[in-house]
Amino acid sequence: MKITVNRNKLINHLSNLSLVIKDNSIRPVISGVKVEVFGNEMSFTGTTLETTIKSSILGVGTENGQGVFKIGLVLEYIKLLNQEEIEMSLEENKLCIHNAEFSTLDSDEYPALNIDGGDLILEIEGNSLVEAFDKVVFSASNESENLAINTIRMKLEDNKIYFTTTDSYRLTHYFMDNNTSLNKEISIPLEGVLVLTKLFKGSDEKLQLFIDGSQLKVRSEGLTFSTRLVDLAFPDYNGILNSISSTKEIEMNLKDFKSSLKKVLTIAKTNQETKNGAYFDFVGNKLKISVSSGKAKTTQKLDTIKDGEDFKASLNVKYIEDFLNNIEKNIKIKATNASSMFILKEDGNTNYTYILMPLALRD
After folding, report:
1. Is residue 114 part of a domain?
2. Do strands 352-356 and 342-346 pair parallel, antiparallel, or not at all (unpaired)?
3. Residue 313: inside a domain, yes or no?
4. pLDDT at residue 361 above 70?
5. Is residue 155 over pLDDT 70?
6. End residue of a domain, out of 56, 88, 109
7. Same domain, 301 and 352
8. Is residue 249 in a domain?
9. Tens of pLDDT along 279-294?
10. Which secondary-structure segment (H or E) carries 63?
11. Strand, helix or coil at 61?
């Protein structure tokens, strides 16, 4: 194998692959990246067997071949080079790059991966997909033991895409208009979504999404991403959304509310017993937020527009802040009483809903 390729493009492709490649003591070969040269095309594959990235770049090839190498040292070394074009070759089980040699792994042991194929379900701009994931990803469960909700639920129906996440304490729902090739509902593992957002953040590339058995495949020009879908029942979020009701509505200035919450959270996060919890007292057109950690305490007051009777509730400040960081206009909070669901909306935005369960803090 021998080929000359652009250094910056090579760094970009290897950096993408490093998003999925992990050390594996059981099958060491998948701790490396597989490189193949055929003609003037150089392709790279990285996998955990659950998640895979395959990409390719064009160069000037003089000898076909393949090998597997550990990405860390190779990428670090290439970043230190000043040459615009880099020659890479495999010689006697060594990867040679500009006066340096790196040991390789046995490419014959690298698993056969099904990267091609599948039924097209969607075409979408890369950054549009990333922005939609960002709207909901913060409330997905981070506990990998609970695979059913360690996911982003994506539903395609009648040229709309619905995104839903929950960690059982809160639920986020967002939808957008986009042409869909068929109606489908899938659960994408959180880890896969995080890789996708890093790959295509800020990208205006057109992405094609395919379903191939239990695999979701996302293709752009020169890159294919694949992840195994989660085949477990997702909570009945439609039942929750359809049961939303409230007798009170409070509107607040986003900037003022965020400022108050930041001050409250500084203290609330130090309380070991009720971490991130605080009291919200809605009286007239005023909101008083109070918190005490034993080491410090604060009370923040701000103006509101309230429709409904006065009431008091305990809420997770960090959870509220997560939603506020994803909106730009005034925040509207709907509720019935201190133990009911709290529904948070951005003023004028019917596409985005955040549902939060109150805490059981003692006053």
Report:
1. no
2. antiparallel
3. yes
4. no
5. yes
6. 109
7. yes
8. yes
9. 999 999 999 999 988 7
10. strand 60-63
11. strand
